[in-house]
Amino acid sequence: MIPLAALLLLVIAFSLIYYAATKMPVVHLWQEYTLLSRYYDVTYLIIYLVIALFIYPFLYKKYPSILTNCVFYMAVTQIVAAIYLIALSTTYYNGAYNIAYFLKIIVYFIPFTCLIINYIFSYNSYLKTQGLLKINQGKLDYITTHDPLTNLHNRHGFEILLKKTITNNTKENSLFALFIIDIDNFKLINDTLGHVEGDHLLKQFSENLSLLTRKEDILSRIGSDEFALIVTKIASISSAKKIATRMLNQLNIPYRFGNQLLMATASIGIAIYPMDGKNTEDLLKHADIAMQHAKKSGKQSYSFYTKKYIFSIAAKPNLNPIYGKH
């Protein structure tokens, strides 16, 4: 774009100079020269063309500033001057009159045109910067609201979405269910097989869980081995029961750890909006209480929140391979 702008400026300037030098009626004090007699002006013109068309764009990419633009303005001014002198050297002219007219053009035309070009470049640079800021802001928003291991929403992103869901369901006077899903025996798996295999299990588990959710539902990882699922717009509690039963059955599959296949099951706690809570804190707390009750009841089960639950921490279970080595 910069070389095209420079060429356009030169064409306009040369047209004005040509008009001033050849078309305007002047006093006939003539003198004639040829182009080949002005080697200095031709060399001068080539040097500043190289500066304007090649050196300036290179400098501007590395050092975009007003000072760099001055190189362009200087080069254009010198190019116009060189063209003017060459044009006058190849025709009849009244030196005193045309030089005065040329200076008038230089004073008004060159600075004004260069200011317009600088404004265009600055505005384009501003738009480009704004575009980059939006892209970077989008990336930053994603990083702050998503879990890097599973690419699901993290706790911060989940709480934002849960608040929005509460607002929407309040307006529509509808139900939704909050599932807290915890991997059974995860700490033992992590301690026994190591964090790398533990992370591998979390990724596999989250992928399987994603396949079991509807497009409109919201799945998040809110803790080490804890996931939260917002099941939107359920018709009744029995709908949540069916979803929980299907999840437990389809999550109860073996996962590969190196040369072993291990069974990893899940426990699910469920809170229903608005009966079990009308804000994020109450819903998360009550769904977690229900999940703890499901674990206490033997794991690989689901439980709905009720006010009568009394909790105790289950004894640490054993980890047993379900298949031999492969």
UniProtKB/TrEMBL annotation:
Signal peptide: none annotated. The chain crosses the membrane at residues 38-59, 71-93, 99-121. Residues 174-307 form the GGDEF domain. Pfam families: GGDEF (PF00990). Keywords: Membrane, Transmembrane, Transmembrane helix. It comes from the Bacteria. PROSITE patterns: GGDEF (PS50887). InterPro entries: DGC-Regulatory_Protein, GGDEF_dom, Nucleotide_cyclase, Rev_trsase/Diguanyl_cyclase. This is Diguanylate cyclase GGDEF domain protein. It comes from Legionella oakridgensis ATCC 33761 = DSM 21215.
